[in-house]
Amino acid sequence: MGPRFLDDERKFILVREGDDRHLSERSLGAWCSRHRNDLVQMLDHHGGILFRGSMAADADALGRFAADAGFTPGDYLGGSTPRTQVRGDVYTSTDLSPLFPIPVHNEMSYLARYPRFLLFFCVQPARRAGWTPLADMGRVYARLLAALRDRFDRLGLCYTFRLSSRHPNAAAKTWQGSLGTVSLDEACEIARRRGLEPVWDDRSGVLTLTSRRPATLRHPRTQVPVWFNQAHVYHESYADELAHHGRPVLAWVVRQVNARQQYVPSRFRTGYTVTFGDGSPISREEIRTLREALWAETVTFDWQPGDLLLLDNLRAAHGRTPFSGKRRILTYLGDDWPGTEAAPVLDQAPAWPRSEEVRTPDIAH
């Protein structure tokens, strides 16, 4: 019997059952450490591996596995989603309300450094839904029309995060929570190390962080072009994601909240936005086309207690569907990869304007 995949046709996300003879003879972490080269080659070919039936649903198991497997821990400084550090280098996957979907995305792709590997571990699956959709970003890149790809390749992206010092909201953390310090000077230094340009406004108490990144990369091992960005996550049309996931009323509420942002003085607005790297807007039609490509290349699966999912962060994007009931999925960010390791699809990175030449966009949500 041949290998099994979450998507057998595309051979995407290899599934290794617990009764596999290699995994039954020794701990899973030790096996992964000993077969590191084989493991990386599997990720090159399949984007990820789902280990099932090999670990007890113990909250401490993920940290022990990561240490035994030899992964180097990363951190979540500069991260945008609400997330709790559980113990050591293990975090909750997200603390965002179960009402909201998280679109498939590459982790921390808006920063100059991002994790090479992601580990997700299921302690308790949701009573209903709460799946982790996965998308092959090489196939997403290939599916998009060449004209759209080329526009993103040529212009790159500009992410703008406006974070309050006092009041987090459903769409944005405080800058202290994002950068892990209460010292403004230290926060700005951390931001710069992550490739973020900080600007502080003393009157509003808002720290603006700007990041200019390529929209696409060549995988450093396979040289396959991959779609590697979060343009659709931070675009003003996020309500379309809610509608896609069967949340039309919530989508209407989000649109109403966004519409009222125009009445808030710009310096006091908080939240996340994205434009092309030259400051020009990304149209709703362009984002709609992108979302359709992502949805077409997405697979899902039902979590089981003790499931361990290992992903190549450049090849495989992940998300979360809305859910009901308790859900506890833990995550570990492994082996930080400096952005210089993966080159843009174009021979040269986009020629971005200086920060003072770029118009700060309105906050969408």
Give the SSE layout.
Layout: E1 4-7, E2 12-17, H1 21-25, H2 28-34, H3 36-46, E3 48-52, H4 61-69, E4 85-87, E5 90-92, E6 102-105, E7 113-124, E8 128-129, E9 134-136, H5 137-143, H6 146-155, E10 157-164, H7 175-179, H8 184-193, E11 197-201, E12 206-213, E13 216-218, E14 225-227, H9 231-234, H10 239-244, H11 248-260, E15 271-276, H12 284-296, E16 298-299, E17 308-312, E18 316-320, E19 323-324, E20 328-338
Parallel strand pairs: 2-3
Antiparallel strand pairs: 1-2, 3-17, 4-5, 5-20, 6-18, 7-17, 7-20, 8-19, 9-16, 9-18, 10-12, 10-15, 11-12, 13-14
Q: How would you describe this protein?
A:
With 365 residues, this protein is an alpha+beta fold. It has 2 domains: 4-134 and 300-338, Double-stranded beta-helix (4-Layer Sandwich), CATH 3.60.130; 140-291 and 345-357, Double-stranded beta-helix, CATH 3.60.130.10. It is 27% helix and 27% strand. The chain has 12 helices and 20 strands. The strands form 5 sheets. An 8-stranded mixed sheet has the order 1-2-3-17-7-20-5-4. The model is unreliable at 355-365 (pLDDT under 50).
